[in-house]
Amino acid sequence: MSVLRVLKVVVNIGLVYKVQHHSGIIFQFVAHITKRKRIVPDILAAGGRYDHLIVEFRGPTATGPVPSAVGASIALDKICSAVANMEEVPVVSSCDVLVVPVGHSSMSRAIKVIQKLWTAGVSSDIVYDVSQSQESLLEHCRLAGISFMVLVSDKEGNHLKVKSFEKDRQTEKRILESDLVDHFIQKSRTKLSEDRNREISEGVSLQNAKASQLGNSSVSESHGSSGTMNVNLIPPDKISGSSRRRYETQIQTRLQNLGSHLQNKSNDIEVLAVSP
């Protein structure tokens, strides 16, 4: 797991996804992608724990504790479509840090350095071909999207040289080997803070835009406009389309009074009906 790549995690206790298959935690990976010239959220992968399926399908003579299982399905077609629609395809790096031994004598020390990084969860790789020039390695980092390069040399004593690449800017810092892991953890925290501040700023701008739209629409729209109620049935087993529509119509009829009350507060209502 990479320390420098921080994913935003949202806990939603109302998330419902194939409850007849999962037991325990379920999850979805959501990304904001471009569709029809608009940026919208879309689910690119989903999954969860399948413990009870193991109990259901294991052999009748099987004994011992039941193992846990976690699985996920990835929507490769959505991912490929999203990448194809991007104006500028982002560079996906294989690691965040490239450890470079300067000379054969520094190889064993470089291996110890990368072991420390791996233990701390920092995504990193090592260069075994010491004959490569620093210029070619710098170009490799630029093309591969690697953010940092650590130079390990016996001539530096207990210090290491850390080169950082941010956009078109390159910096170099000489730090103690014992401080290397803390250095990257601090970099991760700084990046997370910057991402959060950017999200807050974007959220405020979006709220202001929505408030402006609501203010403009309230002049022309009547206050008594009614919304729609969408019912989605999640049965334990597969059923025909006609049966699904019949059940959904029955549920919608029973919730009609409740829907008329809620529609005063919200135009659109989504109902997820989970059958035991």
UniProtKB/TrEMBL annotation:
GO biological process: histidyl-tRNA aminoacylation; mitochondrial translation
Keyword Iron-sulfur: no
Substrates-to-products reaction catalysed: L-seryl-[protein] + ATP = O-phospho-L-seryl-[protein] + ADP + H(+); L-threonyl-[protein] + ATP = O-phospho-L-threonyl-[protein] + ADP + H(+)
Annotated ranges, domain Histidyl tRNA synthetase-related: 94-274
A GO molecular-function descriptor: histidine-tRNA ligase activity
Biased composition (Basic and acidic residues): 191-201
EC number: 2.7.11.1
Feature: compositional bias, Polar residues: 204-214
InterPro entries: aa-tRNA-synth_II/BPL/LPL, Anticodon-bd_dom_sf, HisRS-related_dom
Residue ranges of the region described as Disordered: 191-243
This protein's GO CC annotations: cytosol; mitochondrion
UniProt enzyme class: transferase
Parts of the chain that traverse the membrane: none
Pfam families: HGTP_anticodon2
Origin superkingdom: Eukaryota
Keywords: ATP-binding, Kinase, Nucleotide-binding, Serine/threonine-protein kinase, Transferase
Entries under SUPFAM superfamilies matching the protein: Class II aaRS ABD-related, Class II aaRS and biotin synthetases
Compositionally biased spans, kind Low complexity: 215-227
Record protein name field: non-specific serine/threonine protein kinase
Organism this protein belongs to: Triplophysa tibetana
Lineage, uppermost ranks: Eukaryota, Metazoa, Chordata, Craniata, Vertebrata
